[in-house]
Each structure stands twice: as structure tokens, then as C-alpha cells.
Amino acid sequence: MSDFARGACGPVRVVWDDALTSYDFGPHHPLAPVRVELTMALARELGVLDAVEIVPCEPATDDDLASVHKRDYIEAVKQVSRDGRPDLRAGLGTSDNPAFVGVHEASALIAGATLEAVKQVHQGGAMHALNVAGGLHHAMPATASGFCVYNDPAVAIAWLLAQGVEKIAYVDVDVHHGDGVQAMFFDDPRVLTISLHESPRTLFPGTGFAEETGAEGTAVNVPLPAGCGDAGWLRAFHAVVPPLLREFAPDFLVTQHGCDSHALDPLAHLMLSLDGQRTAYRELHKLAHETAGGRWLATGGGGYELVQVVPRAWTHLIAEAAGAPVEPDTATPEAWREFVRARTGELPPLTMTDGRTPEYRPISEGYDPADPIDRAIMATRNAVFPYHGLDPLP
After folding, report:
1. pLDDT tens profile 136-145
2. Domain covering 10-388 assigned CATH 1.10.10.10 in the classification
3. For 369-373, what is the mean pLDDT?
4. DSSP symbol at 174
5. For the chain, what are the domain ranges?
6. For the segment 191-210, what is each residue's pLDDT rounded down to a tens digit?
7. Among 12, 143, 390, 394, whose Cα sits 20 to 30 Å from the Cα of 246?
8. Where is this region: Disordered (predicted)?
């Protein structure tokens, strides 16, 4: 069971509308909306959604989007949305970001869903809220990038700042650097952005080096070597994230949970298991309560193993947030397996685990300069810990 019973967590809301699956770049694109469809179906069949309240959403308005995006970019997306013609200046019409009719409406709805989730928490209706269709962290102020058109986590953070929230922490565990969110708040010391990702030397978008530190050390990057698995990833997480969150003491925690760090993901090269990812969700849940008064917005993100990984990972995320985690050895429901076979033609996973028991050795027990993971950890600590009055040495 989770360390936080449902009563301690308070109400948990999941923002969902079937129209969120309209964010669809076409049948051969890696970011297939079936992944969120299968996630919600699995969570429903396992009874996970019985522990939360499902709430609807409306599209983000132009003013909402303009809190982080240029208005001429929003107009360019709208034009593409009307005629489906590429606009390469806006980043639409590439293989990563194909142009399609309705792209503005689909993208604005995802941003609106994340905005609704953050409002649910900030306005007191929920302790935690989630949008598994969100987490489009690569979108830049004036261009689409990396499958992302509007940057929904950034829209939510900007809204919180506009409400007078003084300090917000954003933790991104996607295998790709959370470059768009970092760029939008790079010079704003009210926003601490922490991204753990595969090294920019081997993976898109080519940014996220430890030396990118932002205003007063509030941009934090942990670039991990290809091949890093559960033990190394968790070692890095614990060496960087908890001490910074405790020192920063945010009023609100926003997290992005791209599950493309999994060993089966076709677009990246880290080697985490589902069990390692589930462990990260538990740790972030704890930190939300310890450092941010429990105020927690969680989104999805990347994840391109559409059947074996994404549905199970994000079902675990919802269950953890609800304070009713799914036991790892739980069988996937037969009704869901039949739905997977009918919907995708693929064989579904049989249980909610990869059969791993993630363990790690804390950096405090010793630093190995020959280990590339330890070198990455120490590069990050040396770059940012002094800004926060923390000793970078283990």
C-alpha cells in the first residue's frame, strides 16, 4: 500500500474527455493516441478510476495559451488547423510534427485539460490531479517541436504564477529533456525545473546539459548515459531531486511522467523497468506531500511502446496518486486484454509488473569517478547545489 491513505491524500481528480484522443498526427506517427485510450481502459477495468473523480475539460483559450506562446504562433497553428497546409516557420509540416486539420483544437484541448487539473488543486477541490494525455513539454514559445504543439505543463505553471503562487517546482522524468518548459521559465527564479533524461549527446533534443542552470540555479538537468537502468536512474533521482525540493520548498509540485525511459521504448536508450518507473511515481508522491503540502499536478508525456508499457505505467501513476496503488503482480483484466487485441492486434501484457525489484545505492555511500552515472550526478550537483546552499559533495 502507498504511504498515503486516500483520506490523507484528499480528493483526487483525473481530467478526461474522449476528444483528447483527437491529438493525432496520423497512423504511422509514434505518438499514437491509442496509448491514452488503452490507459484509461486499463485503469477503468482494474477499478483504479473508482478511487478518483473524473472531471471534464474545455479547450484552453487564446489568452491561456498566450501566457507562454507568441500570439502570432497561435494564429499560425489556427491557420494550419483550418486548411491542413504545412507552416514550417511554426514547426508544423515536418515528420515529427505533421500538419493536420483540427490541430489547434486538439492541442488546445490538451492544454485545457492540464489547466483544468491544476485549477482543481489550486482552488481546493482536489489534493492531486492528473491529465495523462498531457505533458507536451517540447513545445516552444513560437514553434512546435518534438511532437508537441502547445506546452500544457508550462500553461499550467504560468496560470499558477498569475494566481500569485510564489514557488513552483517542475520535475520531468521523461527520457527526453524537458526543454520547452525549461526555456519558458529559464530566467524566472520562482520556477524550479528539474529534468532527468538521456544524455543530449545521444538523444533529441540535444539540450539538457548539467551546465544549463538558469536563474539562480533553478534550471536543473541530470543527463544520464544510454543504458542506464533502474538502479542508476534511482541513484541519480535520489541524489538530486529530494534535496533540491526540500530546500526550494515549493508551494506546488508539477510533474511530467513520460514513460519512454522504459527498456522497450523504440525511440530512446535508457533501460528502466515498469517497476522502476512505478517506484519513481511513489517517490514523487511522497515529495509532493513532504515539500508542497500535497499540492500535485501530474501529466503524461512521451512513451512509444503503446501496449506493453504506456497503459500499465500510467495506470500505476493514477493509482499511486489516488493512494490506492495496484500490486505489481496483479493480472491485467481479461476484458482489457480482449480490447487490446481488438484495438491493436497485439498481444497484451498479462500482469502489472516486469518482475523487477528496483534497488539502488545512495550516492552518500560513495562516489565512483569511473562510473558515468556518478559523473553525471556530480556534474549536476556541482552546477546547481551551491546556488541553493547545498553541499555538492556526497
Report:
1. 999 999 999 9
2. no
3. 97
4. S
5. 10-388
6. 999 999 999 999 999 999 99
7. 12
8. 347-367
